Amino acid sequence: MAMNIGQTDDETISTINTTPLVDVMLVLLIIFLITIPVVTTSVKVNLPKESNVIRETKPENVIVSVDGQGNIFLYDTPVKNGNDLQDRMKRFAAMKPQPEVQIRGDAQTDFESVGRVMYSIQRTGIVKVSFITEPN
Known about the structure:
Radius of gyration: 36 Å
Number of strands: 5
Largest sheet: 5 strands, mixed
CATH class of the domain at 62-131: Alpha Beta
Shape: rod-shaped
CATH architecture of the domain at 62-131: 2-Layer Sandwich
Strand content: 5-15%
Strand order of the largest sheet: 3-2-1-4-5
Number of helices: 3
Distance between the termini: 94 Å
CATH topology of the domain at 62-131: Nucleotidyltransferase, domain 5
Oligomer: single chain
Structural class: alpha/beta
């Protein structure tokens, strides 16, 4: 004869086993505690603030233009190369006070062309150099 201890084979267990759920939550908690300090630590840097200051071209400013093909112009006069530009900029570098040089680079030109112009201007000793852009 069999003994009946309170449960028959036909009864189902209606409680939820929460042990696997607790295990998964503890693993996720440990992962988050480990990864959050890695994400939040970074080098503190003061980033520059954007300011849209409208610059007016003054008559004493020197305007150097670079077109889409990389050709250089001093005002409206074509310049052969960077050495020629450097020779022409020496007289502006000798002025007291030095005029501001404004570079107008075409949006389709390579940065290399504008970089050569900047290098030539820098070699003459001119300190004030700015870029002319169109506002949005």
